[in-house]
Design brief:
Strand content: under 5%
Number of strands: 2
Distance between the termini: 41 Å
Helix content: over 70%
Structural class: mainly alpha
Length: 142
């Protein structure tokens, strides 16, 4: 049976992260009178301006931290669970812990990648308020 090695899992995880990072979520507007009067091009410009303003005032969009945090948690849990199972079954505890850590880190990174495009809540609130003050009605993020 041919099983993927740790390096191959890491490469797959990185590929997923790259694809996910390219699809960052943006505000979605209700088509009110203001949106109709300014048009979609100006609305996109205003979104960019509000996002830049948020960053200028120190509001961080730490969505990417999700991936690293989940990878570390996955590695820790994977190592611990694998070591316990190996100890109970009489196997090589160190080897099992290493394999569990690699598998757990990969699973955590992949899980985190699915959340990586979700903006930080404070960042989202800042951008929503900025746009609302301009006359837009944000109904969600996609």
């Amino acid at each position: 049976m041919n099983v993927l090695g740790t390096g191959q899992w890491v490469a797959i995880s990185c590929g997923i992260l790259i694809l996910t990072a390219c699809s960052a979520k943006q505000p979605v507007f209700y088509p009110n009178d203001h949106l109709h009067s300014v048009g979609k091009t100006q609305a996109r410009t205003d979104v960019d301006r509000c996002m830049a303003e948020a960053k200028e005032y120190g509001v961080k969009n730490d969505a990417g931290k999700t991936v690293g945090g989940k990878a570390v948690r996955g590695a820790t849990l994977g190592a611990a669970i694998s070591a316990v199972v190996s100890a109970v079954l009489g196997g090589n505890v160190g080897r099992a812990a290493g394999a569990g850590a690699a598998g757990g880190a990969t699973a955590g990174a992949v899980n985190g990648a699915f959340d990586a495009d979700e903006p930080d809540a404070v960042f989202k609130n800042y951008v929503d308020r900025c746009l609302r003050e301009m006359g837009y009605e944000v109904i969600g993020w996609q």
